[in-house]
Amino acid sequence: MGSPSELRQGLSQRQLNMIAIGGVIGAGLFVGSGVVIHAAGPAAFLTYAVCGVLIILVMRMLGEMAAANPRTGSFADYAGQALGGWAGFSVGWLYWYFWVIVVGFEAVAGGKVITYWFHAPLWLPALVLMVMMTVTNLFSVASYGEFEFWFAGIKVATIVAFLGAGTLFVLGLWPDRQLDLSNLGSHGGFFPNGVGAVFAAIVVAIFSMVGAEIATIAAAETPNSERAVQRATNTVVARIVVFFVGSVFLLVVLLPWDSVQVGASPYVAAFKRMRIPGADQIMNAVVLTAVLSCLNSGLYTASRMLFVLAGRREAPAQLVKLSRRGVPYVAILCSSVVGFGCVVMAWLSPGTVFAFLLDSSGAVVLFVYMLIALSQIVLRRRTPPDKLLVKMWFFPWLSILTVAGIVGVLVQMAFDRGAHTQLWLSLLSWAVVIALYFLVKWRRGLAARQASPSGKGRRVAVRQRNRLES
What we know:
With 470 residues, this protein is an all-alpha fold. The chain is built from 21 helices and no strands. It has helices at residues 13-22, 27-30, 33-40, 44-68, 74-83, 85-114, 123-139, 141-170, 196-200, 202-207, 214-218, 225-234, 236-254, 266-273, 279-311, 329-348, 353-360, 364-380, 397-415, 420-451, 455-469. Helix 5 (74-83) packs across helix 18. The longest helix is centred in the middle third of the chain and has 33 residues, at 279-311. The chain is globular, with a radius of gyration of 24 Å.
């Protein structure tokens, strides 16, 4: 049977750096930011700032544990060590479930972008994208890393270009422009929907930031994993401040918040406002790149988590099989099958089965983050000081505050009309996973009892041993 340590260390530092930088930039930022702006108004960048603080703290906690003990699927192992087998099982399967649903969703989203240029039934381009990314992941971890390097590079370059051009436009350094910050208050004020809207929009914004932790999983497949983890966690602050808070701030300065259309990319509207030709074509290509990046990383992450679960005997043993190129090909194929299934459901039953799958995975990543935070609080006290290469700030107070913040977001979801269904269905998903854990544990115990000598046989063995000793 294989183990996580047998995965080939085929990712270069260059690739991991770009995975770390671009991991938090997804289609959720390019399109989903419009939903947040529509809900919170000009104060939307504060929503991203609050979410960013929460993600930064979770990443710092994960970085502390990963630097002390780097391994693939790290947070499932840490949760198991700190909180018990049920927690490790929960983290592994919930995280896998989240990403395989994301893979299917992103394939469908990518298919919609492609139909903007080519008229075809939605399922066809979605299927093509799934096949492409499955082959990429099957080939080698280096091919995944190289694709992700370029995908992430395009996303980063687009945001940097927007930040540069937008700053010049706002400061009046653009042709025929003067300094203008009026959009921050001239359309109903800075908080047009109230201060509470800033916190209500957190539910939408936080999911666009999921993915920062992928770098800690990928670090286990680099030659110097400890150094890679430290660099990934140390730069997450700058990434979130610049790419999320900075770019959304520019959006609300450039555009009247009430002109932003839900479902359309506000970045397209901003580029058009700056009179940049072909803005819609450029941004559609960038959104497609972001979708492919998320699909690529989602399949990679899901397969590695499934591989770890199999290594822990919490998934079928065949899933630890490696190809000659050192990739867990069975785990990749099994994860992609679920993605293909989601594409089929989006075609056959978009309003029922596909909607149920999306809702039932909507909050599971928050459960995972909460278990990561609780694991760090426990493991910090067990870790020798010389192994703490990365330390959580102001321990234990910030760690406790992080847990409270995640619980606060979950409570907000419970009272949010648009999100409470996701919370309850995600809780149902967690309940199913915990039930499976105890079922697996019971079956394992039953098998062990059947394999052991009977009570009578044990007594005979004891009497025979006593005779030999006498």
